[in-house]
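Running log. JK asked me to keep both predictions on one page so they can be read side by side. First protein, sequence followed by its tokens:
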Amino acid sequence: MSLSSKPAHYKLVFFVPPSNLAACKTAIFGAGAGRYPGGKYTECCWTATGTGQFRPGDTANPHIGTVGELEHTEEVRVETLCLDMEIAKRSVAALKSAHPYEQPSYAVYKLEDF
């Protein structure tokens, strides 16, 4: 298979409260994220703990914090591999279903194979 015919790989990165980490990982892994080519490794991810900050606006319904007040909260950053665009899309949908926030903070990056 030539490099040009290989499907593009993607990296999904998201932030989640520690108490919801297991549920979000279960959801994205169930959607196919965290697998490496050849199937020898599954449920792979990298995590790191840090501090997030946000101020809920007047129309917000925050899971954590109070409308109008600046909030600092512990969050876990999760990075995982998605072997193609469809897996990335399914994983984002699963993340949104499992995540406690009104709008989860996430990003999807297309990866290059050099």
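And the second, directly underneath as requested:
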Amino acid sequence: MAEGWSMPRDREAATTRLDALVREHRFTISVVFPVVGAVTLLASAELPLPSWAAFNPFFVLFGTLVMRLPLVAGVGPLLDRRATLALVALAAYSYAIELLGVRTGWPYGEFSYGVDLGPMLFGEVPLGLPVFFFPLVLNAYLLVLLLLGERAESTLPRLLATLATVILVDLVLDPGAVAIGFWEYEAAQFYGVPWSNYGGWLLSGTVAVVLFDLGFDRAGLRRRLAECEFMLDDLVSFVLLWGGINLFYANWVPVGLAALLGAGLVRTERFDFDLSETRLGRAVWR
């Protein structure tokens, strides 16, 4: 064990330490990792790499977990019993609906995974599915809270705006994922993705948004958003990673939609990396 390192005494100490870790490595986590991830995924899709290197599932899962750290740090202190139950219910739902989709084609359309995204449940669904799915919805929810301000206190506008943002996120994600071979649909209508997929996301997104809304204390989320300038950095990573992949394949509509998400982050002042406050930045500015 490294000298001077010790286990946090309690949850508050763990929160403080994780917040400091994310702030210290903010640029690396939210810019370097997605850029490197985009390059390696494109290399896996386009170059004759050895089998152990192409779409290495452990590399994919590790990179995803690292990019999730800002969101985990921000939300972690709010995980009380109600929020945890909501996450457990959503995990069960996401596994069930994904398994149904793989086996029957409903509600997303007939599709199959082209690569292993880590260990597979029943050999059919990624065990890490919640790691991939939850943050997409929660990032959309947090972005809407910031963009709507006080109007987000009204239930219907908050939920509808979040659901629209979730669909926007998938309009960026799925075309890029299909382009690099993560999964493949039998019917290809929008950059290789059938419109039925977005109907499925409408269903799953509604369930997820409602569960997040019921499970998390909104005042607590607003407080953490104010305390953690990095809390939406996972969405920054998403824009860079999937916007970059779509740009490589000239998927212009998804690129434009990724730029729209980026504009939302700029408006909320979440695209605000101060390099002088990062380890890389201190080296650059000296």
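Observation for JK regarding the second prediction: The CA atoms of residues 172 and 253 lie 8 Å apart.
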